[in-house]
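Worked Example 4.2. Consider the chain below.
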Amino acid sequence: MSCLYLIVASMCRPGDAAVSVLSANPCPTVMADAQMHVTHSAHAPQSLGTNPASFWPQDTDKPLVRRLSFAHTLACPQDVLGHMLEFSLDQLGSRFIQQKLDTLTPEELEAAFAEVAPKGLMLMNDVFGNYVIQKFLELDVEGPRQELAAQMKGQVLSLSLQLYSCRVIQKALEVLPLDQKISMVSELDGALMRCVRDQNGNHVIQKVIECVPTEHIISLLDTFSGNLVSLSQHPFGCRVMQRILEHCTDEQRYNSFMQEILKATVQLAQDQYGNYVIQHVVEQGKPHERDAVYDRLFPHIVVLSQNKFASNVVEKMLLHCSPQQRSAIVEEFLRQPSRRGSSNGVISTAMTGDEALRVCEQSALEQMMQDQYGNYVVQKTLEVGCYCFCCCVYCLFWCMCRYLSALWQNQVYCLTNASGHSS
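Applying the procedure from the previous section yields the following structure tokens:
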């Protein structure tokens, strides 16, 4: 142990109050060795005061704390006792505390928490300190949990809107008893939409929906009713909407929400954020909900396949729709525009190669292949396959050759003209 203190002492600069760490171990031999080393060091500080407040360095980058934090990774966690607050505010010190709290005895854990408890709210808002508070909440110790819950009471809304403390609120929603979760949610009444649209608060609302049973957040869900489309088109609201669809166990409200979403399927599929909600319905929804999305999007499937956002929805449909629906989508891709809606324009496996080429020559497939978004839908079509998969591959190959041939001819023409002008 004395070797560790010598390491700490050797790293100190003039003015560093190292003795506050050295005094953490009351062993006289160790203290004597450490003080002797500091005394004979060329960089020994002039004063070895024992005031814990002097531990905190004056410069903003906290170099002393960082060096001591690194040194303490070689020590036992008990050596940090007496300096919990300082270490909690340091990156390396915070990490060390998180790793070692599990190894402390109940008495040592109580002493450690007693040091940070008076500054609990401050640590919740700290870039490194919030992780220490989360760790205390994770520990299955009633004292720290209840003390921290008491400090958060009345502050849930403001903490939910802060970058670092919102993580503490989320952890509390995971581990606290149900009655305290309900109490925390009640503090958000009247500010739900504000939280949903906030870059930090939306994560708290998601965690509420995940961790609190539906019957206890009815008022929260009713606040969203009638606003689901606008909510789904918001960069943060679309995440909340997906959590509602995943965790809402009230069948009546769930069906009401789903109907509100399905009525705006085409609109949401083309939206920058709404498309994620429709993808969620296609991927994780019930079969009849997936069918409803298919029925609304199929008449526009070619146009949507070339839309920046809706093309993602079409790809999900190719993966999760029934084989019959998938085949119908591919047939629509291969239908001649002039004959769209007529079975005469469909490529079938009964056609010869030349017949298939003539149909494909004027189909939407060639246009989709060259589209910056549609080409991904074509690739997904090839991945999933269908009953006319082989014919589709053949047509794609021909279209590709035709397209590359045109590019080559255009390049040759440009080079020929360029050489003619130069001569």
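Residues 1-61, 69-74, 338-352 have pLDDT under 50 and may be disordered. DSSP finds 29 helices and no strands in the chain. Compare this with Example 4.1 before moving on.
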